[in-house]
Design a protein that fits this description.
Chain lengths: 272, 396
């Protein structure tokens, strides 16, 4: 099942928030990446964010930049990452959301990219350098192929824009927790909480997932209690893989389990 | 029809736009709004004109290069002497304009990227004189290649941040400046150095550089009583070229020629010719021509001229190419070097290696057209910064 929005709605009905891990496709190498994805899917994760590496990732901090560079050096291509998505989504009950920048999508051709995404079981696409104003043509083609184009909102987004983003985004809205790039932070930024409150206030229906700077289960639980439908963690996972060269799958499994369990035990989401 | 681009959504035809993270969208709207308001504000204009005249040294001469013309034996070659500006290049036109804009917007911290260091130096100068804090991002490889400019920036009071990601050159310095801006967007002004990036930058940089073309038009009418047949300028990001082209866009009898860095060959990675050899794509916020591989990964670039060493180009140039209003060609490292030597010996002017690309094309062109025709070359910078590079090439 690839219905991302349905997954969030079902989770909401039972008072749960979804943990969404991110990994750069092809990091640290294609085979290890595949095994890590398997482990994620087997650890109770319903949505995985999978990156197609791009040479110039302006929204990413050092950790994901390094993973991107390494994956590209290892010969990762958009096509190979899509194959990986197909492998995982065909074997597991998990939705794959692709994260990439606009240029690789544009080079493949918007239509061909969405066709390929769809035929490879991809449920959604996140493009951090594609803001609302430029998203129209991409969204139209994504819709034709049953792929959700996920839009991002940021702390600097005005209420008026935020309402439009929540209205236009498909599947869920990606709330960028802070003004900055991806990367681990010691504490939850106050901007994350404000943006989450504003989003839920403006559009109580639309699922929202918070990303950038979330690195610990207690932070995830706090966001869940404030009404986040999903919590996205990327850099923390990448640095765990980097640290655990001997058995990265095991390390990721432990980490993911920690988040999933913390979120399923929190159980205090406010009613929708 | 009047040329009135970009459109309100920042488009030159289908090129341009605003492909940036959501975090920057409000900041870009604020910048656009402030700029459009100040552009026509007489006190802003007065202040900028004063600084351009008294501080930067405008107007610059339009010099008839009689010796060079005689040596080539063809059309008359004029040089627009941007090399005589304070700092030694056209970059100061833009940094004074945007520096004043930053000040009026109440932003006290300015960040900028630099490749060869010319824009970094020009930004540091503008910030020093306008009392703004200045931080410059520069690739580690460029810092090594352009040590003197790093020292100049520091003496001018700027902080220089080495960039060690990616290819460690200009494109990565821009990435890092964008990351800084995403982080400090509320307090910081990003002073972009070329007519690239998301709307409104290509428009703002073009407008501040258009002073080159406006002066050229007045000067050539005074000297020759007519407009030139050709205007030739080098194109990296394209700011000096768009600056001299723009006031002539509606004068269809004037042919506009942009010259890109042909480097050492036609293979990807050996040159920086985004318009001549690139493919449409999105880099640093704009849809334009980009040097990239089949998967859309941005390619490495090469040029003897560090200021041309960039894998994309301003979206307005992409539009001018597509509509045929301007034409773009390449000149190799070696041809640029020969032009550098020729101008040094005939006219006693050391041109920047960037400008030497325009010169090399103009010399070939002059040879093949009539003696009564007129070519204006934008001599965008002086070559003192390139002595090490030139001497190394000549010695080797």
């Amino acid at each position: 099942m690839n219905g991302i929005e349905e997954r969030f709605k079902r989770a909401r009905r039972i008072g749960r928030s979804l943990f969404i891990p991110y990994i750069t496709g092809g990091y640290p190498d294609m085979e290890t990446c595949r095994r890590i994805l398997e482990v994620m899917a087997e650890t109770g994760v319903e949505i995985i964010e999978l990156g197609i590496p791009f040479s110039d990732p302006i929204a990413d901090g050092v950790t994901i930049q390094e993973a991107t560079f390494k994956a590209l050096q290892a010969g990762t291509t958009p096509k190979k990452v899509l194959e990986l998505a197909k492998d995982i989504s065909s074997k597991h009950d998990v939705s794959i959301v692709i994260l990439t920048y606009l240029n690789p999508v544009y080079r493949m051709g918007l239509r061909r990219f969405m066709e390929e995404a769809s035929s490879h079981g991809v449920g959604g696409v996140i493009i951090p350098d594609l803001p609302l104003e430029e998203a129209g043509p991409v969204k139209r083609i994504a819709m034709e192929h049953g792929v959700s184009l996920v839009l991002l909102a940021a702390p600097t987004t005005s209420d008026e824009r935020l309402a439009r983003i929540l209205d236009e985004t498909m599947g869920f809205a990606y709330l960028v927790s802070l003004t900055g790039t991806t990367g681990e932070r010691e504490s939850l930024p106050p901007t994350a909480i404000q943006l989450l409150r504003r989003s839920r206030g403006l559009n109580p229906e639309k699922p929202v997932a918070v990303g950038f700077g979330v690195s610990r289960p207690d932070q995830a639980v706090e966001l869940a209690r404030l009404g986040a439908d999903g919590i996205i963690v990327g850099s923390r996972i990448i640095s765990e893989i980097k640290r655990s060269t001997s058995n990265p799958e095991k390390a990721v499994e432990r980490l993911v389990k920690g988040f999933v369990e913390a979120l399923s035990n929190s159980g205090q989401r406010p009613p929708p | 029809m009047r040329y009135n681009l970009p459109t309100s959504d920042g488009r030159f035809g289908r090129f341009g736009g605003r492909y940036v993270p959501e975090t920057l969208m409000e900041a870009l709207s604020d910048l656009e709004e402030s700029y459009l308001r100040l552009r026509d504000d007489p006190s802003f204009r007065r202040e900028l004109d004063y600084m351009l005249r008294e501080y930067a040294g405008r107007p610059t001469p339009l010099y008839y290069a009689e010796n060079l013309t005689r040596m080539v034996g063809g059309a008359k070659i004029y040089l627009k002497r941007e090399d005589l500006l304070h700092g030694g290049a056209h970059k100061i036109n833009n940094t004074l304009g945007q520096g004043l804009l930053a000040k009026r917007m109440g932003k006290r911290r300015v960040i900028a990227e630099t490749g060869a260091g010319q824009h970094g130096v020009a930004t540091a100068m503008a910030c020093a004189v306008l009392g703004l804090r200045c931080e410059i991002y520069m690739g580690e490889i460029d810092m090594e290649r352009q040590r003197m400019n790093v020292q100049r920036m520091k003496l001018l009071g700027a902080e220089v941040h080495p960039v060690s990601s990616g290819s460690k050159t200009l494109k990565d310095a821009i990435n890092e400046a964008i990351r800084d801006w995403v982080t400090n967007v509320e307090t910081t002004y990003y002073l972009l150095g070329s007519c690239v990036g998301p709307h409104p930058y290509p428009m703002i940089v073009r407008d501040f550089q258009s002073v080159i073309g406006l002066e050229t038009k007045r000067q050539i009418l005074e000297k020759e009583g007519r407009l030139p047949d050709y205007i030739v300028a080098c194109v990296g990001g394209g700011s000096n070229a768009i600056g001299i082209f723009h006031p002539f866009i509606e004068d269809h009898e004037v042919k506009l020629i942009g010259v890109e860095a042909g480097g050492e060959g036609e293979a990807l990675g050996k040159h920086s010719a985004s318009l001549v050899r690139g493919l449409e794509g999105i880099l640093h916020g704009a849809l334009t021509y980009v040097l990239q591989d089949e998967d859309g990964q941005i390619a490495g670039t090469h040029s003897i001229a560090a200021g041309l060493d960039y894998p994309a180009v301003g979206p307005e140039h992409a539009y001018l190419k597509e509509t045929g209003r301007a034409q773009y060609f390449t000149v190799t490292d070696e041809e640029a070097l020969q032009a550098f030597l020729a101008l040094s010996r005939t006219e006693g002017i050391l041109p920047a290696l960037e400008s030497a690309h325009a010169l090399a094309y103009a010399m070939k062109l002059a040879e093949n057209i009539g003696k009564d025709e007129i070519i204006v070359v934008n001599l965008s910078g002086r070559g003192d910064k390139d002595l090490e590079t030139v001497l190394r090439r000549l010695g080797g």
